[in-house]
């Protein structure tokens, strides 16, 4: 509900803070006192259009802030969370600043937002019944919401919405797969060609490294044989000087020394070990020399194979050693494309099942709406007669949507049509010329749907236009009844309506040569009686008008 409205430098208001309570609050005052200013300021926080003329003369900007208690408004809390504007608090602040240059800014919980954001959230918090543009009852969407809340099982609506969303996600996935299959047909052919080319090469694991090592050996065959032969000559085959004979001579010299010095024994042991290792090295050199032979044909084969591998690697812009990885990646991509056909078939089966479920749920929703539409029309029409509109008639019209374009809310649209005179064709609410008629029709609808509607606050702006006497009292009684479950704010000129309020605010205006100021104050019981008396008999309060006013207030 609306807890507080703070206004600064708006029209004839310099500073104004109004605290609101649950129940029915009436706002009264003399003609021209500025009652509409209160609703105009509230409308700005709900995203109404603004211009620089609303900024108080001499001020640089108008600043309006509305504080709402959203503890029990799940839709609003979900909306704030979805838009990252949730402060995990039961209080929500809507703020609007309008500069003297006509530019305006909107804020929700201190964060900048668009006017569209203010309007979206505002429709969940408060509904203003007047001739203002943002009155939600002029929109088909509100009609459907009110009818559904009135007569359709909420669990059924939730199941319908969930099924629709799943169905749409499934259809979107089907479309994406179909489009991708068409767009990627050329790519599939390219992948298949590239993979066949790689498979034909039959590239082994680490083949490139192995071939390159063998290539180096074969390519340097002559140098390798010469070096090995030279090493053998130095180690053992030189008749005059070779390592083996020199090492044996050294050991022979040391063998003639006595074993008295341990250091000699250590040296002799090292030389004997060296001699053993030298013999092993000589044996390996001879084995290499005997077994190694240059193979020009093999060298040519390796060279050709490496050339092919390098050429293929350049095509794929990778290193030759990465060709096996590329082969597996291409194979995985082709497999994914192949699986897309199977996935598409699976999604098509799901589409059939979801369509059937949706149609079944939507049919049940339609059945409940049709029954509820008749009942709602009957009850609202009875209420209109009590509100002094005996010739008015409400018709809740259901129209079929295009079957090829299913909706989150079912298979039909809902619209409230009204005829205000006998024989007159029923027309949409937005085409009703009289603001007073529209307000009373809105009141009748809200009275019937109040127990099921989720909008916590309702504002009625001069619903008493063109009525009086017993009808005005009925209007007041209906709003007071609504105030038991919904917060009601009512701007009125009728004493019979004002006397029904749980709370009463009085708007006044004062002027001097320099400026005009609008004030609003909450009245206590005595002040309330005097204001109702003024509304009954004018500024000159008589004992009769005071007694009548006291009786009207006391009866509540």
Explain what the structure shows.
Among the domains are: 1-130 and 462-522, 3-Layer(aba) Sandwich (Rossmann fold); 186-335, no CATH class. It is 55% helix and 17% strand. It has helices at residues 35-45, 74-82, 115-125, 140-151, 154-183, 185-201, 207-219, 221-237, 243-255, 262-291, 296-316, 323-386, 435-449, 469-482, 495-498, 525-537, 543-554, and strands spanning 2-10, 13-19, 24-29, 61-69, 91-99, 104-108, 111-113, 126-129, 393-400, 412-419, 427-428, 457-461, 487-491, 503-511, 516-522. It has a six-stranded antiparallel β-sheet with strand order 2-1-4-5-6-7, covered by helices on one side. It has a six-stranded mixed β-sheet with strand order 8-12-13-3-14-15. α8 packs antiparallel against α10. The longest helix has 64 residues, at 323-386. It is elongated and about 155 Å long. The two termini are 23 Å apart.
Give a short synopsis of this structure.
The mean pLDDT is 84.
Question: Over the alpha carbons, how many angstroms does the gyration radius reach?
Answer: 47 Å
| CATH homolog superfamily of the domain at 1-130 and 462-522 | P-loop containing nucleotide triphosphate hydrolases
Strand element count: 15
Helix content: 55-70%
Nearest-integer average pLDDT: 84
Number of helices: 17
Q: Per DSSP, what share of the residues sits in E-state strands of 2 or more residues?
A: 15-25%
Silhouette:
elongated
**Computed structural class:** alpha/beta
Gross CATH architecture of the domain at 1-130 and 462-522: 3-Layer(aba) Sandwich
Q: For this entry, what is the oligomeric state of its chains?
A: single chain
According to CATH, what is the topology of the domain at 1-130 and 462-522?
A: Rossmann fold
Largest sheet properties: 6 strands, antiparallel
Unreliable residue runs: none
What top-tier CATH class of the domain at 1-130 and 462-522 fits best?
Alpha Beta
Kindly report how far apart the N and C termini lie. Answer: 23 Å
Query: What topology, given as strand order, has the largest sheet?
Result: 2-1-4-5-6-7
């Amino acid at each position: 509900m609306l807890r507080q409205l703070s206004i600064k430098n708006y029209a004839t208001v310099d500073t104004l803070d109004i605290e609101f309570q649950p129940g029915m609050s009436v706002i009264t005052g003399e003609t021209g006192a500025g009652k509409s200013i209160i609703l105009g300021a509230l409308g700005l926080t709900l995203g109404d259009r603004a211009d620089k003329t609303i900024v108080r003369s001499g001020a640089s900007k108008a600043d309006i802030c509305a504080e709402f208690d959203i503890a029990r408004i799940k839709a609003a809390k979900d909306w704030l969370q979805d838009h990252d504007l949730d402060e995990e608090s039961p209080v929500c602040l809507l703020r609007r600043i309008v500069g003297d240059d006509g530019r305006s800014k909107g804020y929700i919980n201190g964060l900048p937002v668009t006017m569209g954001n203010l309007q979206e959230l505002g429709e969940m918090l408060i509904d203003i019944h007047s001739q203002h543009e943002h009155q939600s009852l002029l929109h088909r969407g509100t009609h459907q919401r009110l009818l559904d809340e009135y007569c359709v099982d909420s669990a059924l609506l939730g199941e319908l919405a969930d099924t629709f969303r799943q169905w749409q996600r499934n259809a979107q996935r089907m479309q994406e797969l179909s489009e991708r299959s068409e767009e990627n047909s050329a790519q599939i052919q390219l992948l298949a060609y590239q993979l066949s080319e790689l498979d034909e090469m039959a590239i082994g694991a680490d083949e490139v490294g192995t071939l390159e090592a063998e290539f180096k050996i074969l390519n340097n065959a002559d140098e390798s044989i010469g070096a090995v032969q030279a090493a053998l000559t130095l180690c053992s085959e030189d008749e005059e000087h070779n390592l083996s004979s020199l090492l044996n001579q050294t050991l022979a010299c040391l063998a003639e020394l006595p074993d008295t010095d341990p250091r000699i024994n250590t040296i002799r042991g090292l030389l004997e070990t060296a001699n053993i290792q030298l013999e092993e090295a000589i044996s390996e050199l001879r084995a290499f020399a005997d077994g190694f032979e240059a193979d020009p044909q093999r060298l040519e084969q390796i060279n050709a194979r490496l050339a092919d591998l390098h050429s293929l690697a350049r095509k794929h812009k990778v290193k030759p050693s990465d060709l096996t990885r590329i082969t597996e990646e291409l194979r995985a991509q082709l497999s994914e494309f192949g699986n897309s056909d199977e996935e598409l078939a699976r999604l098509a089966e799901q589409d059939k099942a979801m369509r059937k479920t949706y149609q079944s749920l939507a049919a049940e929703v339609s059945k409940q709406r049709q029954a509820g539409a008749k009942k709602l029309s009957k009850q609202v029409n009875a209420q209109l007669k009590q509100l002094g509109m005996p010739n008015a008639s409400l018709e809740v019209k259901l129209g079929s949507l295009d079957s090829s374009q299913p909706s989150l809310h079912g298979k039909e649209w809902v619209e409230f049509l009204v005829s205000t005179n006998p024989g007159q064709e029923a027309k949409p609410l937005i085409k009703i010329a009289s603001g007073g008629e529209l307000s009373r029709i809105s009141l009748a609808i809200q009275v019937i749907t109040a127990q099921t509607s989720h909008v916590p606050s309702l504002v009625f702006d001069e619903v008493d236009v063109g009525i009086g006497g017993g009808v005005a009292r009925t209007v007041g009684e209906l709003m007071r009844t609504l105030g038991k479950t919904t917060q009601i704010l009512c701007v009125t000129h009728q004493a019979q309506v004002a006397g029904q309020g749980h709370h009463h605010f009085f708007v006044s205006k004062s002027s001097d040569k320099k400026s005009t100021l609008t004030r609003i104050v909450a009245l206590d019981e005595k002040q309330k009686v005097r204001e109702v008396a003024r509304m009954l008999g004018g500024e000159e309060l008589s004992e009769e008008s005071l007694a009548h006013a006291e009786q009207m207030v006391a009866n509540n």
